[in-house]
From TrEMBL:
Protein name: Glycosyltransferase family 2 protein
A family per Pfam: Glycos_transf_2
PANTHER family reported in the protein's UniProt record: UNDECAPRENYL-PHOSPHATE 4-DEOXY-4-FORMAMIDO-L-ARABINOSE TRANSFERASE-RELATED
SUPFAM superfamilies according to UniProt: Nucleotide-diphospho-sugar transferases
Assigned protein family: Belongs to the glycosyltransferase 2 family.
Length: 233
């Protein structure tokens, strides 16, 4: 299987080098691509100094836009599997093989913290439960960790994500793909580490907005999305 690991990076100068080093040690034969999402620190310098393959976006597009850029690269270069992987050290490279193996028999594999372990009681976990319930209500599928950023997509999904409009790797898109493309989703049990350094895409305010936006999109907007795309075709 020809796999590309896509690493969106926004101001990850302090953590990117260590993250990539661990990745290259664990899966040295797997390709990776850093997508510098308009960073204002030395993220690009880290890529250049170490010879990392990277895309340098001229402005900050956000996590979804950065991943879409990587997905388009994966599609144009004929990859069979694309894996979203955080630059901050939270995602552990020892699970890459498990995600690849899962993709052999499904369309989307999600690295899940909560297949075998209960969620906590934080505000973020409350939001995760709301999104999980919305996906269950609209698709009939149970995804225990819908907000996990460690996701793998097969070639069919890569094409849909690369060519579709507003197809970021988010819970509402996963829900949409289940409904409109009969995507088969599995969860692979993983553990995650704490952020090593750098700047997160999300703070508490943006996280709350994200949870609300995802829930509304899954419950309402997704049901118009397919009809609009069908009309356009």
């Amino acid at each position: 299987m020809k796999t590309l690991i896509i690493i969106p990076a926004y101001n990850e100068e302090a953590s990117l080098g260590n993250t990539v080093a661990k990745l290259m040690t664990a899966v040295p034969e797997v390709d990776f691509l850093v997508v510098n999402d308009g960073s204002i620190d030395g993220t690009v310098a880290v890529c250049r100094d170490n010879g990392y393959p990277f895309l340098d976006l001229p402005c900050n597009l956000g996590l979804a836009g950065a991943f879409q850029a990587g997905i388009k690269y994966a599609y144009r270069h004929g990859y069979d599997c694309a894996i979203q992987f955080d630059a901050d050290g939270q995602h552990l490279p020892q699970y890459i093989r498990d995600l690849e193996k899962a993709i052999e028999t499904c369309d989307i594999a999600i690295g899940s913290r909560f297949v075998n372990h209960p969620k906590g009681t934080s505000l973020r976990m409350f939001g995760s439960n709301i999104i999980q319930s919305a996906i269950k209500l609209t698709t009939g599928e149970t995804i225990h960790d819908p907000t996990s950023g460690m996701r793998a997509f097969n070639a069919r999904m890569i094409k849909l994500l690369a060519l579709g409009l507003n197809m970021g790797p988010e819970p509402d898109t996963v829900s949409y793909l289940i409904r409109s493309a009969n995507a088969k989703v599995v969860e692979v049990p993983v553990t995650m580490a704490e952020r090593e350094a750098g700047e997160s895409y999300f703070n508490w305010k943006s996280s709350a907005k994200y949870m609300l936006r995802m829930t509304l999109s899954i419950l309402f907007i997704q049901f118009f999305r397919k009809r609009l795309e069908g009309d356009a075709a």
